[in-house]
Design goal:
Layout lengths: L1 H4 L6 H17 L4 E6 L4 E6 L6 H21 L7 E5 L4 E7 L3 E7 L5 H31 L10 H8 L2
Antiparallel strand pairs: 1-2, 1-5, 3-4, 4-5
């Protein structure tokens, strides 16, 4: 449960791994856009053609929507609704909970299908869950190791950074 309350620290190396999963998902599912949002409404990564999309609002509204439907789930005796799907006239929105704290959002149109998106999301969900488990462990180690974000940096890392 501490995982839900703590602030997630995403280092550049981790961000690139998350972004790679998003880019692959956008490509393989023929999605317009793929977004990774934390349950506090912070946008962590995005891929695809996102022109004209207010990503800040998308992230906060996604988190609010998932929280609201989580409340609805509890009312009817469910733990949560892990998958949300909204069908529009032009665009569709598919949201999936990953590792209970991350929301994977896919926007797609007629170039794709719900079946293809769901198939590709299953694979991405497994990869993202594994990545965020590693990221969470790193964050916990950094906090217990004095809390310094520099505690994992070695002398070799510094030498490599300044090498010609």
């Amino acid at each position: 449960m501490a995982m839900v309350d703590s602030q997630l620290v995403l280092y550049d190396e981790d961000y690139r791994k998350v972004l790679a999963v998003c880019e692959r998902l956008a490509r393989d599912s023929h999605a317009k856009g793929v977004f990774v949002v934390d349950n506090n409404g912070q946008l962590l990564a995005e891929a695809g053609d996102i022109r004209g999309i207010d990503t800040t609002s998308l992230a906060s509204l996604t988190a609010g929507s998932v929280a609201a439907t989580g409340g609805l789930a509890k009312i009817i005796g469910e733990e949560e609704f892990p998958i949300h799907f909204h069908q529009g006239q032009r665009d569709n929105l598919h949201m999936t909970l990953v590792a209970r704290r991350i929301i994977l959002v896919i926007i797609f149109d007629e170039r794709s299908s719900l079946g293809l998106v769901r198939l590709r999301v299953k694979k991405a969900n497994v990869e993202l869950a594994r990545l965020f488990e590693e990221i969470q462990k790193k964050s916990e180690r950094a906090r217990s190791g004095g809390g310094s974000p520099f505690s994992e940096i070695t002398d070799d890392d510094i030498d490599r950074l300044f090498a010609d």
